[in-house]
Amino acid sequence: MNILLPSGVNLLENLLPVAGCSLATSQGLKFLLAFRKGRTFSLHHLMEPGGMPSSHAALVSSLATTMGLLYGWASPYFQLAAVFGCIVIYDAITLRRAVGEHARHINMIHCRDQGFSGNRLPEKLGHTPLEVTIGILIGVLITLTFI
Question: Is residue 44 part of a domain?
Fold first, then answer.
Protein backbone atom coordinates (compact mmCIF):
# COMPACT_ATOMS: atom_id res chain seq x y z
CA MET A 1 0.00 0.00 0.00
CA ASN A 2 1.43 3.36 -1.01
CA ILE A 3 0.38 6.49 0.77
CA LEU A 4 2.34 9.20 -0.99
CA LEU A 5 2.77 12.70 0.30
CA PRO A 6 2.77 15.49 -2.31
CA SER A 7 6.51 15.20 -2.93
CA GLY A 8 6.29 11.46 -3.61
CA VAL A 9 7.59 10.39 -0.19
CA ASN A 10 5.91 7.20 0.94
CA LEU A 11 4.35 7.76 4.34
CA LEU A 12 4.46 4.09 5.33
CA GLU A 13 8.08 3.62 4.25
CA ASN A 14 9.64 6.81 5.61
CA LEU A 15 7.68 8.63 8.25
CA LEU A 16 5.67 6.17 10.32
CA PRO A 17 8.32 3.44 10.79
CA VAL A 18 10.93 5.95 11.95
CA ALA A 19 8.51 7.65 14.36
CA GLY A 20 7.33 4.23 15.58
CA CYS A 21 10.92 3.15 16.18
CA SER A 22 11.54 6.30 18.23
CA LEU A 23 8.43 5.59 20.28
CA ALA A 24 9.34 1.92 20.79
CA THR A 25 12.93 2.77 21.72
CA SER A 26 11.90 5.31 24.35
CA GLN A 27 9.22 3.00 25.82
CA GLY A 28 11.69 0.10 25.86
CA LEU A 29 14.27 2.26 27.60
CA LYS A 30 11.63 3.33 30.12
CA PHE A 31 10.89 -0.36 30.78
CA LEU A 32 14.59 -1.19 31.23
CA LEU A 33 15.16 1.77 33.57
CA ALA A 34 12.14 0.79 35.68
CA PHE A 35 13.42 -2.80 35.83
CA ARG A 36 16.88 -1.63 36.84
CA LYS A 37 15.52 0.72 39.48
CA GLY A 38 12.96 -1.60 41.03
CA ARG A 39 14.30 -4.99 39.95
CA THR A 40 10.77 -5.92 38.93
CA PHE A 41 9.87 -7.38 35.58
CA SER A 42 6.50 -5.80 34.81
CA LEU A 43 5.07 -5.33 31.35
CA HIS A 44 2.98 -2.55 32.86
CA HIS A 45 6.02 -0.27 32.52
CA LEU A 46 5.85 -0.61 28.74
CA MET A 47 2.53 1.23 28.59
CA GLU A 48 2.60 3.61 31.54
CA PRO A 49 2.74 7.37 30.96
CA GLY A 50 5.36 9.66 32.44
CA GLY A 51 8.86 8.79 33.47
CA MET A 52 12.26 8.71 31.82
CA PRO A 53 12.42 9.21 28.85
CA SER A 54 9.40 10.91 27.35
CA SER A 55 8.06 8.79 24.51
CA HIS A 56 5.77 11.65 23.51
CA ALA A 57 8.79 13.90 23.01
CA ALA A 58 10.63 11.15 21.12
CA LEU A 59 7.69 10.63 18.76
CA VAL A 60 7.02 14.27 17.93
CA SER A 61 10.69 15.19 17.62
CA SER A 62 11.14 12.25 15.26
CA LEU A 63 8.19 13.41 13.15
CA ALA A 64 9.48 16.99 12.99
CA THR A 65 13.05 15.93 12.22
CA THR A 66 11.85 13.58 9.48
CA MET A 67 9.77 16.34 7.91
CA GLY A 68 12.69 18.76 8.11
CA LEU A 69 15.08 16.32 6.48
CA LEU A 70 12.67 15.22 3.74
CA TYR A 71 11.05 18.56 2.88
CA GLY A 72 13.42 21.22 4.19
CA TRP A 73 13.47 23.18 7.40
CA ALA A 74 11.43 26.04 5.91
CA SER A 75 8.69 23.78 4.53
CA PRO A 76 5.14 23.94 5.85
CA TYR A 77 5.39 20.19 6.66
CA PHE A 78 8.25 20.76 9.09
CA GLN A 79 6.62 23.86 10.54
CA LEU A 80 3.36 22.00 11.16
CA ALA A 81 5.17 19.07 12.78
CA ALA A 82 7.30 21.42 14.91
CA VAL A 83 4.28 23.37 16.19
CA PHE A 84 2.43 20.11 16.90
CA GLY A 85 5.51 18.82 18.71
CA CYS A 86 5.84 21.95 20.82
CA ILE A 87 2.20 21.67 21.90
CA VAL A 88 2.62 18.01 22.88
CA ILE A 89 5.84 18.69 24.78
CA TYR A 90 4.40 21.74 26.54
CA ASP A 91 1.39 19.66 27.57
CA ALA A 92 3.61 16.86 28.92
CA ILE A 93 5.69 19.26 31.03
CA THR A 94 2.85 21.44 32.34
CA LEU A 95 -0.68 20.05 32.23
CA ARG A 96 0.00 16.33 32.58
CA ARG A 97 2.56 16.97 35.29
CA ALA A 98 0.04 19.14 37.21
CA VAL A 99 -2.59 16.40 36.89
CA GLY A 100 -0.11 13.96 38.42
CA GLU A 101 0.51 16.35 41.33
CA HIS A 102 -3.23 16.66 41.89
CA ALA A 103 -3.55 12.88 41.88
CA ARG A 104 -0.79 12.64 44.49
CA HIS A 105 -2.64 15.03 46.79
CA ILE A 106 -5.97 13.28 46.25
CA ASN A 107 -4.32 9.94 47.06
CA MET A 108 -2.83 11.40 50.26
CA ILE A 109 -6.22 12.75 51.35
CA HIS A 110 -7.93 9.47 50.50
CA CYS A 111 -5.36 7.42 52.46
CA ARG A 112 -5.54 9.80 55.43
CA ASP A 113 -9.34 9.80 55.59
CA GLN A 114 -10.17 6.23 54.62
CA GLY A 115 -6.97 4.26 54.92
CA PHE A 116 -5.25 2.57 52.01
CA SER A 117 -7.85 1.03 49.73
CA GLY A 118 -5.69 -0.01 46.79
CA ASN A 119 -7.53 2.19 44.27
CA ARG A 120 -4.98 4.93 43.86
CA LEU A 121 -4.96 7.44 41.04
CA PRO A 122 -1.86 7.28 38.85
CA GLU A 123 0.57 9.99 39.90
CA LYS A 124 3.31 9.79 37.29
CA LEU A 125 1.60 11.23 34.22
CA GLY A 126 3.79 14.10 33.07
CA HIS A 127 7.47 14.68 32.51
CA THR A 128 10.31 16.74 33.89
CA PRO A 129 12.32 18.90 31.49
CA LEU A 130 15.16 16.35 31.64
CA GLU A 131 12.84 13.47 30.69
CA VAL A 132 11.57 15.51 27.74
CA THR A 133 15.09 16.49 26.66
CA ILE A 134 16.22 12.85 26.63
CA GLY A 135 13.06 11.93 24.67
CA ILE A 136 13.82 14.64 22.09
CA LEU A 137 17.40 13.38 21.73
CA ILE A 138 16.17 9.82 21.20
CA GLY A 139 13.71 10.95 18.53
CA VAL A 140 16.29 13.02 16.66
CA LEU A 141 19.03 10.37 16.87
CA ILE A 142 16.75 7.55 15.72
CA THR A 143 15.61 9.71 12.79
CA LEU A 144 19.16 10.63 11.80
CA THR A 145 20.06 6.94 11.92
CA PHE A 146 17.29 5.85 9.53
CA ILE A 147 16.70 8.81 7.18
Answer: no
